Task: structure prediction
Amino acid sequence: MSKIKVMDELLANKIAAGEVVEKCASVVKELVENSIDAKSTTIKVELIDGGLTQISIIDNGIGMDKQDAILAFQRHATSKIYKDDDLFFIETLGFRGEALASIASVSEVIMETCMNDIGTRVHLKGGEKVDISSSSARIGTSITISNLFYNTPARLKYLKSETSELNNCISYIEKLALSRPDIAFVLSNNGRVIIKTSGSNNLLKTIHEIYGLNVSSNMLEIKATSDDFLINGYISKPSVLRKNRNHFITLVNHRVIRNNEINRAINDAYNTYKHEGFYPVIVINIETDPTLVDVNIHPTKQDIKMSKLEDLTELLYQTIKKVLYENLLVPSAIYEEDNPDDTPFIDEREFFNPSNAVAKPQPEEEFKEVTITQTAFDFSSQADDIPVIKNEEFKGLKLYPVAQVHGTYIIAENEDGMFILDQHAAHERVNYEMITKRFKEEIPQITDLLVPVSIELSKSDFNSFWENKKVMEDLGFTIEEFGINTIIVKAHPTWLKKGFEEESIRTIIDIMIENARSFSKEKFLDSMAKMVSCKMSVKANERLSLSQMEHLLEDLVKCDNPYNCCHGRPSIVKYTNYELEKMFKRVIN
Ligand code: ZN
Ligand code: ZN
Result:
C-alpha cells in the first residue's frame, strides 16, 4: 500500500471514530461486543479514571491467530473474524471491525490474543504499528486502549468528566449483564470492583447481583405468550421504585432495546400503583421472530422498530396488570436495609471517598474465579417456587379499627399484626374503583341539576370540547349549546359528590379541554375518575367514628388494588406481629 493510501485510510478511520465513538462507554461497548462474539463466558472491564486514562477488556473467548490479530485493526476487514450462527445478532453489530480500526486510530492500543498455543501481541499508536510480537498463551483476548482521542483534540474535549464517563459505562454493563445472565461480567474502576455478576444464567440472581437484595426480593415474575411473542422476566413491586426509567430494561431476543411505546405500556400498567414520575425496575425479555424486528437503524442507537408492536404492547400491558393484581403488595413498615436510592453510583462522593463507598474494594482475584458472596436469598430454587402471596387473601381479610390519629390516620389490627392507613388515600381508592366501575354502566343513573351550570368558553376550547362531548354524554351528562361558545349542563350522573356538582363539572370540562390535543377516551376517563374520587373522599383532619372507619376498612379490602390511592400514594402499611416484636426487642433477629 502506498504511503498516501495509508494516510487516507488513517484519516478515514479518524473520521469514522468521531461517528462511532462518542464516549468511553462506546469503546467499552464495541470491545465487549467483540468479546461476546468470541463466545466469552467471562468478560472483565477495567477502567482507569472512568476510562479517560485507560480501558482494558479481558475475555476468555476463542481468541485470534496472528493473521487475524493484525487484520482486526484494518477497516472493512474484520467482520469475518468472528462469525456467529445467529444472523440477527450479527446484523445488530453493525460497525464491527471498522469500530476497532477507528478506535485504534485515535488512541494507543495493546492487544494480546491467543487461540491455540501461540499468543500474539499487537501494539498500535494512532492506528500505526509500533510493534507486533508473540505473547503469553492465555486463551482469549485482552485489549487495552489508552489516551483516547489524544491525537484529535477536537473530539477530546467532548469527553465528559470521569464520573459521567464512568456512569455511562456502569449503566451499559448493568444492562448488558442483565441481558446475558449466562456471562460473568466484572467492571472495575481504579482497581475497585463496581459490578460483578456470576454468569449463573439465572436472571433473578443477576438482578440480585446488580441491584441488591431489596430489589431482587421484591420482584414478581412475569410470563406470557402469544402467536408472535414470548415474554418472560421480572417486574418490581410498587414498593421498589426509581426516579427515572433507566431501569426499564427491555430485551428483544436478548438484545437491549429502547422503544417508547413499550415503555409507555409498562408504565400504564402500573397506573395508580405508583406515583407519577416514579418507575419500577423491569427486566423483560421478548422473544420473537427476528423478521418482525427492524434493525436497519443506526447501530449505536438502541431504538428499534417492530411490526405488530401494538399486539406486543397490549400483551405486556395485560400481563403486568394481571401480575400486579394477583399479588399481595401491602408494604411492610419495616425499612429494608438496602439503599433504595436511585443509581447509587451517581454521587461522586460515594465513588471517591472510600469511607462512603457503596461497594467495598475487593482484592483482585484469579481471572476465572468469579465468586459471589452468599446472601440470605436463595436463588437455587427456580422462580416458580418463590412463594407468592395472592391478592385474593387480602380480599377476605378482616381489619378492626382501633383508633384515629391526628384526624388523618387509622390504626387497625387483626391477628397477623397492626395496620396504619391514610384515611384520605384509602377512601380515594375505594371511590376511584367505584367510579371506574360506574363508567361501564349501560344505563347511567342521572339527576337533574336544579340550576343548570352554564360555562362560557373560548372559541377554540368550545370546539375541542364539542368534538369529544359524546364521551361525557355517554356517562349521563346532559349537555346543550347555549348561545355563542357557551355550554349548559342540565343533568349529571349520580356519582358526583353532592354540593360539589358545579365545581366538579367545571373541572371535568377543563380536563377534557386540556387533553383535547390528542384526546384519548381512556386517559380522559381515568383523569376524571381520579379527580372526582379525590374530591369526594374524606380529607385529612376529619374526625371519623369507629363505625365509619369500619366501613372504610371493609370497602378497602374489597378493592382490586387496596394498597395505593389512585395517584399511587400508599394507603395501607402493615407491621407484622414479628416486626412489632422485633422493634421492641421481644425477639432478637
Ligand atoms: Zn386525593
Ligand atoms: Zn391520591
Summary: The pocket of zinc ion (ligand 1) is lined by residues 424, 428, 534 (CB under 6 Å). The chain has a mean pLDDT of 82. The first strand starts at residue 42 and ends at 48. The longest helix spans residues 3-20.
